[in-house]
Amino acid sequence: MIFLTPLALFGLVALPLVYWLVKATPPPPREQVYPSLEILRRLTSGRADTARSPLWLLILRLTAVALLVLGLAQPVWLGRSLTSGADRAMILVLDNGWAAVPHWQERLRAARSLAERHFRAGQDVTLLLSAPDPDGSMAAPFTTQDRARFEERLLGLSPHSWPTDRTRLASQLKNLDQAGAQSPAHDIVFLSDGVATGSDPTLTSALAHRSSPVSDMRWTGCETMLLAAQQDDHGVLSATVSALPCAAPKASPFKPGALTLRVRAENGGTLGLFPLGAAPDKPTTLPLPPLLRNRASRIVLERDTGPLPGPSAIALLDEGDHRHPVGLLTQGSQDTPLTGQGFFLAQAISGVGTLHRGTVSELLKQKLSVLIATDGTLADETTRHLVADWVRHGGVLIRFAGPVLASDPQAALHDMAKTLLPVPLINGMRQLGGPMSWGKPQILSAFAEHSPFEGLPLPKEVTVTRQVLAEPTPDLGSHVWARLSDGTPLVTASAFGQGELVLFHVTGTADWSSLPLSGLFPEMLERLVDRSAGQQDTSALRTLVPFAMLDAQGNLVPPPEAARPITVEALGHTAPDVQHPPGTYGPHLARKAFNLGNALPPISDEPMLGKALTPDRVSPDHVLAPWLLGAALLLLLADCLIALWLRGLIGRLTAIGFVIGATLLPAPHASAQAGTAPQAQPSGEDDETPPHQNGVTHGVVPGAALETRLGYILTGHDDIDQASREGLQGLSNYASDRSSAVMGHPDGLTPGKDDLAYYPLIYWPITEDVQEDPKRSAALNSFMAHGGILMLDTQGVGSDLSTRDEGQTRAALKRATSGLVVPPLSKLDDHHVLAHSFYLLHDFPGRVQGLPVWVARSGDDSNDDVSPIIIGAGDWAHAWAMDAQGNTPYAVIPGGDEQRTQAYRFGVNLLLYALTGNYKADQMRVPELLKRMEQ
Questions:
Q1: pLDDT per residue over 588-618, tens digit each?
Q2: What are the residue ranges of helices labelled H in 757-836?
Q3: pTM for the whole thing?
Q4: Contact call for residues 762 and 789 (beta carbons, < 8 A)
Q5: How far apart are CA 218 and CA 240, in angstroms?
Q6: What is the per-residue pLDDT across 14-38, written as a single tens digit (0 to 9) for each?
Q7: How far apart are CA 488 and CA 770, in angstroms?
Q8: What is the per-residue DSSP string for 184-233?
Q9: 89 vs 5, 178, 188, 214, 508, CA distance in Å?
Q10: 3-state helix, strand, coil in the chain (%, to 5)
């Protein structure tokens, strides 16, 4: 311990004076006899004053004064330091490259602790940084004896996203040795990141010739990892991870389930979560569907506590994968300027993507994302077979109608492989307007919310005079992306293999409609091209200019001043440095990712640079003055209160305080009445029982009996159960904010063990490993028979977003419903009560859209015509999900936020339908009832 103001200790000399003042007593009274006051001898005193202070009070006062004096002397409790001493100057080398990010704040604290003793001894401390600055130069050595300047320098530091440069660091140390040849030797302490680099031998050789002590302080490598991402020729993503050895086995990051790979879209939404394999150095496949893979922007390595820090835990994906080459297939005179379809389409595509022209065989040999075919180009059966095979493997075919297609009898077939049409057509064309038609030209209707054109403005001048008509089928509505004002389809689409078939029911010229003349036409084509799978093409550019770099926090920021272009050939074997930091390079539509994990070899331990130091054996100094002064003030305050108590004034002061408090504060019953208002809405936050145990509680009232809660069936899959919990929590919050329903947090349930009677709605995500369970079925049958609604969700199976096998999922759904009393079902439409129980809805999307939802057929009076079961594949829980920070962690495809809003609205309708039954259906009959009453 040291004292920064030792002269203040002379105040302790005053302690004997304090002792004498406290112990001093007045001289004894002189006795004088007054006969007239003899009566006073018979009086007794109500209070006896002490002749001298008690010993304990004397000790208290002396202690208070001593603490006050010691506090003013500013004592400092010295921390532990393992350097050789403060009699020599110190060179402190701080690694500030990408590997220093995980323990950056601990490194700064260690630097303060190591430098403090040298400052007190009046010695120099020189700070060296091992990574170059953004301008490409090494930071100049910073030497000072001033603690404040050193602290200011540390606060201005931050780690970089490129590696350290040991060669240039060795040169700086050599220059310091030459400049200080006549001065005493320096101690050298490395705050090392522990990651080996190719220039380590240069630094080791430079340190070997020094006679002064060298120490190396390192932190555990449990969080120092390097993520690399790969993509094969088929577009399948995979990832590998390398890491430093972890000294603590319990903290090892490679325990099963400890690490997760999260695939994010450009807007930050989650496209997929995949556990890292047991062997992290071997590729872990990320089975994303093509539609999601095309939207992937980065892969993030996460632990159960959140993302790992630093750019090394992020792998950017090539934006070149988002490039969408477009092939245009025309014939004959269709390329005539100002009149041909090829001319109009080429003009519309020119601002959207790279356009390729040629024959079918020439186009399909290239890497295309979209193929646009004008009328008559696919009349040949061999051509259709080649194009069909290309679409099955992920291509998007956009066709335009015309006289050839209108007269083709095969267009009415229900075989997409033969027709390459998303819907069967009625033979002939429909004419609107003109002397031979009773109709008039039609304008466009608003785009549906599930359409990729949703949100585009509708020009009033766009009209349609001719079109081919789709055959009315039960599922036609799910294939329509654009309609005319009379409801007939203008654009239809359907999935075909891994690709899509899209048909414009008009020509690509202005002879059937004015759509190709409007600004809406290229915007519609742009939306369609953006949906397609991206292709890589490195032949267009040979040199890539830096566009953005990853900083130490993993954000994309402008590149540093020293950043330089890189050639495509050198991209795969260039080591990252300040001139080539990790990030993205190249122009839009051809941007390439440059990641630490792909450019660096697997990380390994760096050889020790000197005597090993551990951070846990270095502790900072502790200033004791605030604690001593605070304790002194508390003791002096206690002395004042004791003095008042000895004089009998405490009781009077207490009475006065009570009277003042009773006057100013409101009456207890008033505050109790005022406090009931906020507590009228019960909250489940104080329920400390884990969510999966909230279904039944023994000996206490269940939480679901005190507030309205939703339930979900536990599947045994942590990721699915978490999504169900977050989804129902997000729906509960949304419904509470927008309706009179007051919802608590959801509960995880096990039918047959937990009491289901408290829940109006139970959500059940179907997994492929679900088995038959008679006990579960009996509990669910009783739940539905008493008015509960069971919602089964196959989580997007059947859509482009799902990688699960449809056959296995159907078998799992059959096992799940075995033993359940399922009434006859019908497809949910906008005439059902669910479509208008709160919001007026026409579609019922979740994370995916366009899939049917099945409910009990109307007319079942056994349950007051309320469907006891709802079956669908919308993956609603992921669309509703809201994490602890209030964010929506899962991306909604393809409609984004608008589709998520519709999913929430469907959830509110579903919730109110479960709470209130079919009262909306009764309201629909009110006019008829009033009419009968009038009669």
A1: 657 889 999 999 998 888 998 888 887 766 6
A2: 774-785, 806-817
A3: 0.61
A4: yes
A5: 25
A6: 767 766 666 655 555 666 666 655 6
A7: 43
A8: PP-EEEEE---B--TTHHHHHHHHHT--S-EEEE----TT-EEEEEEE-T
A9: 25, 15, 9, 13, 80
A10: 35, 20, 45
Q: What is the rounded distance in angstroms from the CA atom of residue 366 to the CA atom of residue 369?
A: 10
Amino acid at 223: E
> How many other CB atoms are found less than 10 A from the CB of residue 847?
28
Structure tokens at 667: 């009456």
Helix (H) or strand (E) holding 567: strand 566-567
Picking from 923, 824, 924, 828, the residue whose alpha carbon sits closest to that of residue 876 is 828
Distance CA 194, CA 452 (A): 50
Q: Largest Cα–Cα distance in the chain?
A: 147
Q: Mean pLDDT lowest for which of 216-220, 790-794, 889-893?
A: 889-893
Distance CA(726)–CA(438), nearest Å, equals: 55
Residue 616 near residue 624, CB atoms below 8 Å:
no
- Cα–Cα distance, 851 to 793 (Å, whole number): 11
Distance (Å, rounded) from C-alpha 493 to C-alpha 478?
A: 9
Question: What are the residues whose beta carbons fall under 8 Å from the beta carbon of 318, sequence distance 6 or more?
Answer: 231, 536, 591, 592, 593
Instruction: Specify whether the backbone of 796 is left (phi greater than 0), alpha (psi in -120 to 50) or beta.
Output: left
Distance CA 610, CA 192 (A): 11
Buried b / exposed e along 130-149 (16+ C-beta atoms within 10 A) = bbbbbeeebbeeebbeeeee
Which sign does the torsion angle of CA 838, 839, 845, 846 carry? negative
Of residues 530, 532, 540, 525, the one with CA closest to residue 590: 540
As given in the structure block, the two tokens for residue 749 are 């349930």
Residue type (1 letter), 840: L
